[in-house]
Design brief:
alpha+beta, Lipocalin, eight-stranded antiparallel barrel, 8 strands, 44% strand
């Protein structure tokens, strides 16, 4: 009987020591939900780098900067994104640009469309660092299916 009491007391003490502050958990989860992609658009905008901050609610913010100087090239744009399996589509609000591509691991590549027409290839990497280059070989951009 006494042994069970000490076992229960030890178990309760262990649980008390391992408790996590719920506020800290929510903050960490919120940070983990925002995903950053950094993109290049070599055919249309070869000197610029774009950063997309994706929110779990399906919205995103886009900032662009000059690759050489780091200076901003545009005001922050916004849009909506959706994902269906490996396919991810970003649509800018107020502009006729649509990014349609495939996510493979920490890479996202495809075709940038302007007014419904193919405009440029693009590629992005997860995180703050842009990909070094987009391949020019027939790849993801050529394999896209159009809805």
């Amino acid at each position: 009987m006494v042994g069970r009491f000490f076992l229960l007391a030890a178990w309760c003490a262990l649980l008390w020591c391992l408790q996590v502050d719920p506020g800290l958990s929510r903050d960490a989860a919120a940070e983990a939900d925002d995903i950053v992609w950094t993109a290049i658009i070599p055919d249309a905008f070869p000197r610029y780098v774009y950063t997309w901050r994706m929110s779990p609610d399906g919205s995103y913010r886009e900032d662009g900067r000059d690759a050489a100087s780091g200076r901003p090239i545009q005001a922050t744009l916004s849009g909506h994104w959706r994902r269906d399996g490996a396919r991810m589509i970003l649509r800018q609000e107020g502009h006729p640009f649509v990014f349609d591509g495939l996510v493979v691991g920490s890479s996202y590549a495809g075709t940038l469309h302007l007014n419904g027409r193919s405009f440029s290839r693009f590629c992005a990497a997860k995180g703050e660092k842009p990909p070094e280059r987009c391949g020019s070989e027939a790849g993801v951009a050529m394999m896209q299916r159009r809805d």
